[in-house]
Write a structure and sequence with these properties.
By secondary structure, the protein is mainly beta. Helices cover about 5% and strands about 50% of the residues. The protein starts with a strand and ends with a strand.
């Protein structure tokens, strides 16, 4: 699994959003329920764009585009001297070609970003993008023992006079119980220590580009599933068999946040 810093494109940071049509801010609000949809640009060849102008230049090295039906999606960035094509070392994509992780060669000081396209995967549809994130990668943990997700529902439950139950749903969120066990894996130990010291939210991507080798997958293990989380309450650390040189066992609870 991989961990990323705060999303630098988040609308609540005061960034300016421009778009060819529709409500572009819905692609940067971290609320994946809706996302952005173009309006009146449902023919292949109709060019669309989303632009995010940051309040202050910020270093990033990863861009995550979630659930877009744009077939010829391109990204340009302004680093202070006008828009240029995004330079990246690799792009990893979901099996349905709708979600993409752009891995940059080196970190860039981002001032503006523009996502563009003109054709859709299924021809002649309104263009859509669920969310766009830009952040730095904090690290990857490869040798973990288990991660147990739990889907929590926020509900108001009333018992009616007829004896039935009335349930009003307000939303849902995930919690994750992460069991980490490492033995002489210095990189994993460094990432674990960083996570436990961190006091601001971060993003976790469990799939880590493994969708192609999975026989079946469901939320939250799909390629497109990325979550903003915080470490919740206490963590539990012990050394394997109480030997300080043999490795560590760590149990961490993470909760999805807004």
């Amino acid at each position: 699994m991989r961990f990323f810093s705060e999303n630098r494109l988040y609308t609540l940071l005061g960034n300016t959003i421009n778009e060819s049509s529709g409500t572009g801010s819905l692609a940067f609000d971290e609320a994946t329920r809706y996302g952005w949809t173009s309006n009146g640009e449902d023919t292949d060849g109709d060019s669309v764009y989303l632009e995010n102008i940051l309040t202050v230049a910020t270093l990033i090295d990863r861009i995550f585009v979630k659930d877009s039906n744009i077939d010829n999606l391109t990204i340009t960035v302004d680093l202070g001297a006008g828009y240029v094509a995004l330079s990246y070392d690799e792009v990893q994509s979901s099996s349905d070609s709708k979600t993409h992780l752009f891995i940059l060669n080196t970190p860039i000081s981002l001032e503006k970003i523009k996502i563009s396209g003109s054709n859709t995967i299924i021809a002649d549809q309104e263009k859509t993008i669920k969310q766009v994130y830009a952040f730095t990668e904090l690290g990857r943990i490869e040798n973990y023992e288990d991660i147990s997700p739990s889907r929590e529902r926020v509900q108001k439950i009333n018992k009616l006079q007829a004896g039935k139950i009335d349930v009003i749903d307000f939303g849902r969120y995930f919690t994750f119980k992460l069991k980490l066990k490492t033995h002489y894996v210095e990189d994993d130990n460094a990432v674990i220590d960083m996570l436990l010291q961190r006091n601001v939210p971060m993003f976790v991507w469990i799939n880590d580009n493994t969708e192609s080798v999975m026989t079946m997958y469901q939320e939250p293990f799909r390629f497109k599933d990325i979550f903003k989380v915080s470490v919740q309450k206490k963590d539990k650390l012990s050394f394997a068999k109480n030997l300080f040189f043999s490795g560590i066992d760590e149990s961490v609870d993470m909760v999805e946040v807004y």
